[in-house]
Amino acid sequence: MGRVAGSDEAAVRVRAAELGDASDVAHLLAELGYPCSRDEAAERIAVVRHDPRQHLLLAEDDGDACGLVSLYTLYSVVHGCELARITGLVVLPDRHGRGIGRRLLKEVESISRRSGVRRIEITSSPNRTGAQAFYRRCGYLDGSMRFIKALGD
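Structure (tokenized):
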């Protein structure tokens, strides 16, 4: 696809991650603050590819992986509907401001609509103020506070 003047977003290709993308996925997860090896990334891709409720998408710009989003859907008893949860979204820093994050969100929203999802949730660490501002600009609203308890060994 050729570039459209003034629209870097149009040149971005979004596709499902494949096992051969493990090195790129590992790099992007490390950029997000969740480092893993290529082999660990390959295992994660395999899990997602075999679960119809999960999606792992890569954004490519000129053939280079530059962004990633992970999504899973579930039925919410509380809301009485299917909902989607974005569990990770990252764009390489040198590609910020080019519409790649928006393109990934649009694809997630499209997948979610086709799956009958009526609500999408995104969590963000309190210190990721830039990400939070981005989500708000994309139409996402502040929601509930999330609590976490790690289950140790």
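The radius of gyration is 16 Å. Residues 1-7 have pLDDT under 50 and may be disordered.
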